[in-house]
């Protein structure tokens, strides 16, 4: 394995862990598509941050995008609660509109913005090893993306391990959580903030579509394999890591897109779990339904 | 017939609640004695669950206030326990019966502390009280409706509160579970707790409760059961001939669907 392959797989794995951990909570709250919404809605944030600061400095973009991500979840809730639009319709309207706004901004300021739609949607994970972080003295610390994603992962791990019980309870039974004094709104927005942060950090390298795939696929796979949330988080991270490594080699073999290959592997993982899962799989359920044939 | 008590456990003062400008509770004013088993009775859509949610601060009040033990909810939250309707949660959630029971201890853990051995022990004791100790590690989707309801009760027991507010704990449970639950509630009353239960079966209400609240958007009655469950007041609550109709439809419902297993509808 050469060093470039190592960095690409590591980047994919870091994105996979971040997305799949958060995705577990999203699918349990039946909000899987919120990840989709945020990953698209951050686009105008990135463009605006770029226009205002005039640089592709990572931090300004992260902030701009994170703000838009949270604003997007706020709008979704707002339309859902105030206008009585169903949650899925509210998600659909909000993020397509925000994404369109981003596209318009890019096309209007095409000359000034060094961004294009393809990059936003599909990312360029293969270019990760090119954007290196060099210190003043010229020391090579590896790709910049890896450091950013590593930082996000540390934040997420702290967030989930410190506040596991709050996230668990507000996802399972918000009414009871509120009754014992937990603010369900606060934990909702903290979770959405974490999703925004992850999406933004991940999307430059892997693109919006792979973020969605990683946020829904591995958690859905893990959901079929276990009945314990802690194991589900672990399995989902493992499924994500396997997908990013296998996806890289699949892309190499096919000479195709890495992000596409990773998504494809995620789909295959889900199908395998769907058929072979010991508890929820198609085969085991069929076995349970079969009459016991002993005379 | 609205009877007030001195030194009430719960005081609901002139409370009005509405959903999108449509009033659901109108000027409800009542007090409850301590060490009582209280039933909230009324037709569908009468605002029974809304009353409990309003007491727990889960809905904004348009007017009035609620006091528990003479204080605001914030000051005495640890002394109050809420049991939501069983259908309000997703029972396919990756959690075991013990996990759910343990949630009852979360309120006292503070922001960072994780549940440990002590909390596990409390939760196990609570499961034992409802006879679910053998199912502690069972995934909650694999439990029957009655067992799920018992797990919900065990979570409330693990809180070790003084006032319990339960939303339809008898909905969709079998007779054996209903008997076991009411026995447990009676024991709780003996140890000085107050239990408030949303209920819609008039027949059993007479035996179960020593204090009854009759509700139909407005408060019709609140007082000792033998004084409130009178044909006159019931007619007022259910609206004349509707009494018979709702009784008949309720009976039909029970015959046709003894256990109603409905998937939770999430917005």
UniProtKB/TrEMBL annotation, chain B:
Which GO molecular function terms does the record list?
ATP binding; ATP hydrolysis activity
Keyword terms = ATP-binding, Nucleotide-binding, Transport
Classification via InterPro entries: AAA+_ATPase (IPR003593), ABC_transporter-like_ATP-bd (IPR003439), ABC_transporter-like_CS (IPR017871), Metal_Ion_Import_ABC (IPR050153), P-loop_NTPase (IPR027417)
Q: Which residues form the ABC transporter domain?
A: 10-242
Name one matching Pfam family: ABC_tran
Query: PANTHER family, per this entry?
Result: IRON TRANSPORT SYSTEM ATP-BINDING PROTEIN HI_0361-RELATED (PTHR42734:SF5), METAL TRANSPORT SYSTEM ATP-BINDING PROTEIN TM_0124-RELATED (PTHR42734)
The UniProt family comment states:
Belongs to the ABC transporter superfamily.
Q: What's the name of the protein?
A: Metal ABC transporter ATP-binding protein
